[in-house]
Every structure is written in structure tokens, then in C-alpha cells.
Amino acid sequence: MLTPGNAHDATVFAQVLDSIRIPRIVAGRPRTTPARVLGDKAYSSRAIRHLLRRRGIAATIPERRDQVANRRRRGSLGGRPPAFDKEIYRARSVVERCFARLKQFRAIATRFDKLAARYRAGVVLASLILWLREATR
């Protein structure tokens, strides 16, 4: 999913989940539900956690400071903190490094392109360049 530059990615989280297709190793339909979602603190909202729980998807998303403070302020009415596994969350660094490498390309980092199709084409080209550089090593 490609969102406008001034919109947050969490606004289309449900659409992203709906478009997931995980190919199977053996023959068969691709899986449409991931086993786990790793997200940063920006995806820590009640709506996203409820959506993942309803679909039976495990979430590894750290809580924001304000959410922790509000939960503690409410005491026993605030509920228990959501489960969070630091070991699993460390795998998210792969995604962050990928974004950092893509942002080495100035056109992607500053998003000069007005049309979504052109921006997506730039991301695909940058991904191919990075992939070819890695393949030659």
C-alpha cells in the first residue's frame, strides 16, 4: 500500500493486512494471515491491537510512554500491559536497516515525485539496485 507523504501508515493498517499473500512451500493457496506482526511504537493503538486479536494474529508492538502512564494512572481499571517479547522484536532491525538503505536514494527520502506510480517505480528501482549490489558481493 502506498499512502500520501503526509498520512501515517497506521491509517491503512487493515488494508495492508488484507493484501498479504504468503506463498506456501508446497502447492496450495497462499496464506492470507501472518502468524505475527512486528511493529514500532507508532502502531501501538487500541484499534490495531483489537484488529490483530480478532484475526488471531500475535502482536509484538511496544507500548508508547503515554499509554503506559495512562494505564498505570487508572490502576486496576487500566488492565494489564500487552505481551511484548524483546527477543522477537529484535528481528525488526532488519526492516529498519532496509528502510535506511532505501533512504540513501535522495528521491525516495524526500519524495519528489507527485504521482504515486512514479514514487513506487523509484522504490522498485532502488530495491533492484540494492539487490544487485548485494548479489555482486
Structure, described:
The chain has 137 residues and is mainly alpha-helical. It folds into 2 domains: 89 residues, no CATH class; 35 residues. 47% of the residues lie in helices and 4% in strands. It has 7 helices and 2 strands. A two-stranded parallel sheet has the order 1-2. β1, α2 and β2 form a beta-alpha-beta unit. The protein is globular. 4% of the residues are buried.
Features:
mainly alpha, two-stranded parallel sheet, 7 helices, 2 strands, 4% strand
List the helices and strands and how they pair.
Layout lengths: L12 H6 L17 E3 L7 H10 L2 E3 L4 H9 L12 H4 L3 H10 L3 H5 L5 H21 L1
Parallel strand pairs: 1-2
Strand order of the largest sheet: 1-2
What coarse outline follows from CA principal-axis ratios?
A: globular
Order of helices and strands: HEHEHHHHH
Whole-number count of domains: 2
Fraction of residues in H or I helices: 40-55%
Kindly name the structural category. Answer: mainly alpha
Strand content: under 5%
Whole-angstrom Rg? 18 Å
Q: Whole-Å distance between the termini?
A: 31 Å
Major beta sheet summary: 2 strands, parallel
Unreliably modeled segments: none
How many strands? 2
On the 0 to 100 scale, the average pLDDT is 89
How many H/I helical runs?
Answer: 7
